[in-house]
Amino acid sequence: MTRVRRNVAVAGVALSDCGRVPDATPYALHAQAARRALADAGLDRSLVDGFASAGLGTLAPVEVAEYLGLRPTWVDSTSVGGSTWEVMAAHAADAIAAGRARAVLLVYGSTARSDIKSGRRTGELSFGTRGPLQFEAPYGHTLIAKYAMAARRHMIEYGTTIEQLAEVAVQARANAALNPEAMFRAPVTVDEVLAGPLIADPFTKLHCCVRSDGGAAVLLAAEELVRDCRTAPVWVLGTGEHVSHAAMSEWPDFTVSPAAVSGRLAFERAGVRPAEIDLAEIYDAFTYMTLVTLEDLGFCAKGEGGAFVEKGRLLVRGGELPVNTDGGGLSAQHPGMRGLFLLVEAVRQLRGEAGARQVRRAGGQLPALAVASGTGGWFCSSGTVVLGR
């Protein structure tokens, strides 16, 4: 029996309408993003034999696949929060490489903002009180409080300042200013970030992600389908995933995220070093996530994230390592599990389709390597994908 091993490309990417979309349902946003990704690839829906979705329906991804008119022979509904889509991309790439699928569609959609505005849900995100969480929930240990505690520990251990954390928000907004699809584009200053209403010490409002509606889709395909695609392929070079903890008491070190493992695995499997990466798309529900993930991916040493994010290093224009080039969850959009948006933006950058926010290497060349790293829960999980032209 001959072992099948194929290269895997990202053939199509797309976003649905994003930001404020009060008249859409989550299913409609899934469908809109999926249609656009297939059109982007130039491939027919009949070629899709794999499907991955999470976060919608009782039997995800069965219900969403039915809504889209798909009957896949390979499915994945792995749900690990914001890192879901990087983990799913890893699983899909392995399945395609092994010959178990030829084209896998990853789709997400959410009306998180509109649901709150209309009263269909509250602003509180609850993960329930069963299992390990039963020992934390009675004390009001909210999701944002957990991130805030971790940020405060980093500040105590390494002298990271609140001004350095604020720089992450400032530079994300500067990148968003170049993105016509971003929800918030007006520049902000460090002083404005610090002066905002306190949400959970040390985070003020602008340290936290925006809340939006929106959807995204990514189509992964076997190398033999690439010749029929409308767009140039972006190759999946290496992936990594890691699950760390559920209860905060089981987290060994608040200053180390699971990206320390998923990133190392992804770079090793891709055969590249962090220093070779041209841009990074990092999950940023809070400013601290960006800072600590940069450390754990190896872009700077542990404890040096605060100094690293200073002096505009994350900017599209003139930054040494452009990060969250669309404005990220802090300014562009954040409809919930945002990991799929990271992959879409990384692919657009590598293709040279990012418009005013396009990253350029020395000499005006397009970027060759990008990394997308998603984080789930309260640093409970991480998925990292290295992509290249």
Structure notes:
This protein is an alpha/beta fold. Helix content is 32%, strand content 17%. The chain has twelve helices and eleven strands. A nine-stranded mixed beta sheet has the order 3-2-4-7-1-8-11-10-9. The longest helix has 16 residues, at 26-41. The two termini are 32 Å apart.
List the total number of helices: 12
Mean pLDDT: 94
SSE arrangement, N to C: EHEHEHEHHHHEEEEHEHHHHEE
Q: What's the gyration radius in Å? A: 20 Å
> Distance N terminus to C terminus?
32 Å
Q: What is the percentage of strand-forming residues? A: 15-25%
**Uncertain segments of ≥5 residues (pLDDT<50)?**
none
Reported for the largest beta sheet, the result is: 9 strands, mixed
As laid out across the biggest beta sheet, the strand order is 3-2-4-7-1-8-11-10-9
Number of strands: 11
The share of residues in helices is: 25-40%
Task: Please provide a brief summary of the model.
The chain is of the alpha/beta class and 389 residues long. The protein is 32% helix and 17% strand.
List keywords for this structure.
single chain; 389 residues; alpha/beta; nine-stranded mixed sheet; two-stranded antiparallel sheet; 32% helix
